[in-house]
Amino acid sequence: MQDATHGASVIDLNVPMLRRAYSIAGLRRAAGGFEIDVIFRVVGTATRWMETLRPGDALSLLGPLGNAFPISDSKPLAWLVAGGVGLPPMLWLADALAAAGKKVVAFCGAQHKNLLALTIDSGAKPDPSAITAALWATEFAASGTPVIISTDDGSLGFRGYVPAAMTAHFAAATPDPSSLVLYTCGPEPMMHAVADFCTQRNIEGYLCMERNMACGTGMCQSCVVPLHDSADPEGWSYKLCCTDGPIFSAPAILWQTPVRR
H-helix or E-strand containing 235? Predict the structure, then answer.
């Protein structure tokens, strides 16, 4: 912007300078184009600015970026594990998996029930002890996907972290690991726990990693993720979240970056 008094350029610190990466929660055809759904939590400058937007406001978007969750032709079961604002891609994925004929269960966690970005049936009272999947959430019910809800403080559903709810349900339901695929998006410690769960039981799993993406095209190299790489002399290499990802196989992730020798 220009300073009208002196003609000098000044920066408005209340306007986000770099693009932010968001998952698409839904896509629909609309008159003259498409509509997309984006779910976000107001925590900083960019999301506070987004909160002020109104119908008719113009935005600059770049996307879609990167790859997508693969859907297995041979495995009939799919579990979706979402934490916090990692929920959006799970909604769209649930639709795609249901359309592919998969039996889907969604595990959705948040710190408190008020931070759960779902519309819960007003009569629903998820039993924290039963780990029961049911059509509690309107957004998942549209695809016929039952949900297990967890909150860190026990304000709704299972009391504890969502990987613990998933582990308890696995013990109760005893699915065949070879028939199951896990998909997850959310806080990195949560996804680390899900990746370990997959590795320990030889379950196919995919993680939607999150990084700051300054350009979204691979030019800035700011969104690197360390991965196991048998072709590299040291056994690992960096990949880019924006172009190589953001979806990576669970066993591929290196949770602590090694030091190059």
Answer: none
Neighbours of 70 (CB within 10 A): 12
Tokens of residue 109, six digits: 């966690």
Burial class (CB in 10 A: 0-12, 13-18, 19+), 229: middle
Spatial distance between the Cα atoms of 79 and 74, rounded to a whole number of angstroms? 15
Model pLDDT for residues 113-129, shown as the tens digit of each residue: 888 888 887 666 666 66
User: How much is the pTM?
Assistant: 0.85
Highest-scoring range by mean pLDDT, 6-20, 34-48, 50-64, 147-161? 147-161
What sign does the CA torsion over 85, 191, 24, 72 have? negative
Tokens of 133: 């999947």
Contact between residue 93 and residue 118 where contact means Cβ atoms under 8 Å apart: no
Domains of the chain, start order:
1-55 (no CATH), 81-208 (3.40.50.80), 211-261 (2.10.240)
Alpha carbon distance 154, 142 (integer Å): 26
Tell me the C-alpha distance between 57 and 86, whole Å: 26
170, 173, 178, 182: CA torsion to nearest 10: -50
Residue-wise pLDDT for 160-188, tens only, equals 999 999 999 999 999 999 999 999 999 99
Asked if residue 107 has pLDDT above 90, the reply is: yes
